[in-house]
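Researcher: Quick test of sequence recovery. Tokens follow.
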């Protein structure tokens, strides 16, 4: 009986932009599935998950490939965004291949140049795990440690694919630390706690309706990124964080569960329209500081989203190895960090999948400040292209308790 070989997939945060399938939204679907399964604050990196799967895609075939393509149908443009964004962004790819696994030349040619590295999984899986964890830690400037938990690498592991990205950007309009003070935040169960609340009054791009309130916080373009764009004469994209507050009486979980791709796109399209200076009201914004790290077992999430074959003996990754070694994913992990303060946003994430060898809103126009208080659970999204409402987010999350 043929046995399938352990394959591990690991990725850290990244971002993507595309005009893609508007009937689906990979990031939103990932957020919805994660929110169902996880308590507390949520932080995911849709790009990290998608970027990792992109490293496997060239080696997949038949139904396994079809399921991956369907899942990623709204994430085209993934590979080119780093060349366009003016955000401060560091990204790298690495594919660790067992030293005795003969790699298919076509697969090696299809993955990022210089990404393939030989490693000895068979004789020292513990050391191999340490090597990969150390690479991820270095790539994320020590923000993500131990993406691969104990026991995730075994003697029959054959491949680990890693996409690592590090993100740290300042607000275009920073909050004054002196204006931050303890204020009430009402949790989902009605409990009230004091949290550090930041304050800013400015002509923000925002939208307030009966169905939601949303505000866009743009990031300052990075000087080095702009210089690089000018050298290659490529178009720029600007990034921002979008915070979305459900209406009074609607929990954030109910709100997220009822969102779909078209509704989320419409929220972002309306923000784009109101970005015109004459349409932006003065907003008295109150937003809590928050920082947290999240570890997620993504196996069941990816299965629920339709990627079923890859985690079964029916998996077909026959394009990876020239000797057709059967490969099957056995696990998927993601670790994500987000930190939002007066200065800006710092974030990092890592995703790992292990395979084994074995068996219409109303515009707000007012002469008085529009008060927008994020003093109860809300959704946040970090995007690298604020002008493209269908681009896959860099990060997404839910603040249930700052």
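Model:
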């Amino acid at each position: 009986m043929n046995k399938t070989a352990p394959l591990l997939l690991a990725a850290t945060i990244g971002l993507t932009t595309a005009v893609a399938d508007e009937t689906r939204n990979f990031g939103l679907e990932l957020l919805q599935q994660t929110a169902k399964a996880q308590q507390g604050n949520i932080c995911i990196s849709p790009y990290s998950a998608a970027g990792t799967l992109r490293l496997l895609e060239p080696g997949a075939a038949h139904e396994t490939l079809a399921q991956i393509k369907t899942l990623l149908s709204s994430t085209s443009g993934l590979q080119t965004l780093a060349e366009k964004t003016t955000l401060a962004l560091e990204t790298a790819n690495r594919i660790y291949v067992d030293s005795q696994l003969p790699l298919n030349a076509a697969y090696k040619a299809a993955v990022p140049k210089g990404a393939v590295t030989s490693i000895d999984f068979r004789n020292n899986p513990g050391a191999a795990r340490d090597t990969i964890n150390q690479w991820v830690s270095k790539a994320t400037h020590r923000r993500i440690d131990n993406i691969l938990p104990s026991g995730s690498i075994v003697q029959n592991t054959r491949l680990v694919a890693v996409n690592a990205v590090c993100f740290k950007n300042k607000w275009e309009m920073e909050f004054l630390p002196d204006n931050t003070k303890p204020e009430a935040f009402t949790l989902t169960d009605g409990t009230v706690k004091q949290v550090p609340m930041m304050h800013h009054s400015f002509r923000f791009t925002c939208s307030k309706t009966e169905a939601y309130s949303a505000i866009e916080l743009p990031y300052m373009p990075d000087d080095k990124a702009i210089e690089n764009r000018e050298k290659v004469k490529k178009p720029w994209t600007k990034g921002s964080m979008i915070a979305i507050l459900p209406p009074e009486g609607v929990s954030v979980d109910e709100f997220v569960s009822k969102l779909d791709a078209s509704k989320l796109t419409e929220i972002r399209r309306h923000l784009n329209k109101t970005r015109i200076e004459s349409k932006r009201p003065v907003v008295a914004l109150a937003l809590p500081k928050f920082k947290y790290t999240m570890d997620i077992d993504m196996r069941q999430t990816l299965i629920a989203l339709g990627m079923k074959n890859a985690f079964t003996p029916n998996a077909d990754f026959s394009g990876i190895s020239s000797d057709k070694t059967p490969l099957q994913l056995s696990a998927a992990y993601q670790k994500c960090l987000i930190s939002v303060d007066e200065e800006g946003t710092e974030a990092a994430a890592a995703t790992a999948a292990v395979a084994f060898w074995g068996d219409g809103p109303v515009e707000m126009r007012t002469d008085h400040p529009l008060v927008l208080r994020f003093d109860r659970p809300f959704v946040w999204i970090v995007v690298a292209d604020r002008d493209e409402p269908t681009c896959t987010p860099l990060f997404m999350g839910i603040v249930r308790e700052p």
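The CA atoms of residues 207 and 214 lie 5 Å apart.
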